[in-house]
Amino acid sequence: MQARHLLVVTLTLAGLLTGCSLQQPATQPAMTHLVIAEPEQAEFRYEIELAKLNQVLMQDDLDAEQKGMAYYRRGALYDALGLRTLARMDFTRAIDYQPRLADAYNFLGIQYTELAEFDYAYEALDSAIELDPEHPYAFLNRGIAQYYDHRTKYAIDDFQHHLALDPSDPYRILWLFLAEQRTDKELARQNLLNNAAAIEPNDWALDLVNLYAGKLSEQDFLAGMTKNLRDDEKLTERLCEAYFYLGKYKQMSGQWAQAVNYFKLALTTNVYNFVEHRYAQLELQDSREQLTQP
């Protein structure tokens, strides 16, 4: 990998991010040996497809189904490019033409959660589940909405349902743990260890689970988070995940200044369509609020 694409830094937290005014308490260790990649760039094919969809939507001979799908596809592209308002407008238009389009409701639920508009999020995600009870992600997204709305019991129910569909998925295991540890930390850790047995040994995200379970130190985790990238995996994507969950890890021990900076690092990746990027801003706001409390 060329040096301009990957930089390993050994700076302390206070000097890590330009413009960061937060000072790290002396009792917290420095964040060292961090890996920073260039932000992800939009794929050229997205721009080409957007241009084509704009032309399609100008046609007068589209029926309602075709128009609904075109708006949905354009909304999904806007969303992947981080253009959330434009995406939300298109998902709403898609539903106007195709009221039973579960995927559009699912996307709207995600976006309303990002805005902390939870009533609208529940309305959209409930509609997605009603239209498609086997939707692959609606239960996860409703669980996340409930997690951020502090409806922990309901979040746990949805995360358990989502995990049952794929017990080997480490990210499903992590979200369930994050919700469960709010109510019973020891039980959450035991469930985490039990669920981890289903994860494939060569799955990189097993390191995240081991970090949370106390079986892997933060420094060892940082040292190994760029190893064994799959052919279909980008460094920015892995770093987006790693820094988000490191931020959550720091929150659990009350290290809010380090959490703030890990969430900033997750945001710098520009991996807009990852769950971890979507909610890093909410986490960043929460961590900042915790820092200002006496």
TrEMBL record:
Entry GO CC: plasma membrane
Gene3D superfamilies per the UniProt record, alphabetical: Tetratricopeptide repeat domain
Superkingdom to which the source organism belongs: Bacteria
Compartments where found: Cell membrane
InterPro entries associated with the record: Lipoprotein_NlpI, TPR-like_helical_dom_sf, TPR_rpt, Ycf3
Positions of TPR repeats: 102-135, 136-169
Keywords: Cell membrane, Lipoprotein, Membrane, Palmitate, Repeat, Signal, TPR repeat
Function text: May be involved in cell division.
NCBIfam families: PRK11189.1 (NF008391)
Complex and partners: Homodimer.
Protein known as: Lipoprotein NlpI
